[in-house]
């Protein structure tokens, strides 16, 4: 099991300095390179062969689950763009509805529902019942420890191949806005042997029941102490804010949003839909397959997700 502690070549006084929680200073990397003799490499090793299994995982806990159009699009995008060996949908209830039926009919040999009971405790500590995602936060780590692979939230539409990332033991991205403060857990890749994943699971021994501390703040602290264990990819997922969300439903992208979208490996659509109105989060006549024909950026993303068409923006 991975243990926390100073790298054997790091001077102890410097290790204490470089292990502090406040690493947001812009001079941190420069100082670390100049004064931390023997510190682990800032970049993790890239393996010559892929070490992350080509499996995609989704997790959903609820009393029932009628899959929405957006969730179907998200899963379809993973199948079309990532070409995984298999998609595993882990849930305490079986998905239902026409959109789930569409997926299992079209991709019958490549997608499976897997019964997964809801996690109520971590390291014998009761999870905060007022935070719905706490169960999923724990479950995704255990699923990735067992199988390895790619975990995606069910509101992420995949835009690009992840093949380059599969050569690293661990890949994660910053939480939006893209600052030095937090790492997100909505889109991650782990090998089964990832030491960072071990450390991530161990960090839940300090579970405090808050909304963000364990899922996004502690991973950044782990990364700052052990940058050689994980690759951080800034735009592994793009979370458009209000102005950008409206742009996606037209062809009027500004230069900044266009560049971010072109560089991103996935796009988070729950925020987009909230900015467009809650009706888009459910299966309604206003939100369905007919949008594939629209001459908008969103239409182009849907054509990529459903048909595998090339995304040109």
In a few lines, what is going on in this structure?
This protein is an alpha/beta fold and 313 residues long. Helices cover 35% and strands 13% of the residues. It contains 11 helices and 11 strands.
Could you describe the 3D structure shown?
The chain is of the alpha/beta class. 35% of the residues lie in helices and 13% in strands. The protein is built from 11 helices and 11 strands. The strands form 3 sheets. A 7-stranded mixed beta sheet has the order 3-2-1-6-9-8-10, sandwiched between helices. It has a two-stranded antiparallel sheet with strand order 4-5. Strands 7-11 form a two-stranded antiparallel sheet. α3 links the parallel β1 and β2 (86-91). It is globular and about 50 Å long. The relative contact order is 0.15.
Features:
313 residues, alpha/beta, two-stranded antiparallel sheet, 11 helices, 11 strands, 35% helix, disordered N terminus
The DSSP helix count reads: 11
Number of DSSP strands? Answer: 11
Strand content: 5-15%
Apparent shape = globular
> Structural class, from helix and strand content?
alpha/beta
End-to-end distance, in Å?
Answer: 46 Å
**Low-confidence sequence ranges:** 1-28, 30-38, 277-286
Biggest pleated sheet: 7 strands, mixed
Summarize the topology.
Elements: H1 12-18, H2 28-35, E1 55-60, H3 69-82, E2 86-91, H4 98-106, E3 111-115, E4 121-122, E5 125-126, H5 133-147, E6 149-152, E7 156-158, E8 170-172, E9 187-190, H6 195-203, H7 213-225, E10 231-232, H8 242-248, H9 255-263, E11 266-268, H10 270-276, H11 297-307
């Amino acid at each position: 099991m991975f243990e926390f502690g100073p790298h054997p070549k790091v001077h102890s006084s410097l290790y204490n300095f470089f292990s502090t929680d406040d690493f947001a200073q812009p001079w941190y990397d420069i100082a670390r390179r100049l004064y931390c003799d023997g510190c682990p490499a800032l970049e993790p090793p890239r393996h010559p062969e892929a070490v992350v299994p080509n499996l995609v995982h989704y997790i959903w806990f609820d009393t029932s689950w009628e899959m929405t159009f957006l969730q179907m699009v998200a899963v379809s995008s993973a199948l079309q763009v990532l070409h995984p060996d298999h998609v595993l949908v882990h849930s305490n209830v079986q998905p239902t509805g026409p959109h789930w039926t569409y997926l299992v009919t079209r991709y019958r040999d490549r997608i499976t529902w897997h019964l997964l009971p809801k996690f109520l405790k971590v390291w014998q500590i009761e999870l905060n019942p007022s935070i719905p995602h706490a169960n999923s936060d724990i479950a995704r780590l255990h699923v990735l420890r067992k199988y390895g692979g790619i975990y995606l939230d069910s509101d992420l539409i995949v835009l690009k191949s992840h093949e380059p990332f599969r050569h690293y033991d661990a890949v994660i991205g910053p939480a939006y806005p893209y600052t030095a403060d937090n790492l997100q857990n909505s889109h991650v890749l782990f090998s089964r042997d990832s030491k960072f994943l071990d450390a991530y699971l161990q960090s839940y021994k300090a579970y405090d029941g808050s909304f963000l501390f364990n899922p996004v703040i502690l991973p950044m602290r782990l990364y700052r102490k052990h940058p050689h264990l994980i690759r951080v990819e800034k735009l592994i997922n793009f979370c458009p804010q209000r102005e950008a969300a409206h742009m996606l439903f037209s062809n009027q992208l500004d230069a900044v949003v266009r560049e971010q979208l072109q560089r991103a490996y996935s796009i988070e659509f729950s925020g987009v839909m909230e900015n467009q109105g809650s009706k888009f989060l459910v299966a309604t006549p206003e939100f369905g397959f007919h949008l594939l024909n629209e001459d908008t950026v969103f239409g182009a993303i849907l054509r990529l997700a459903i048909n595998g068409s090339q995304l040109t923006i």
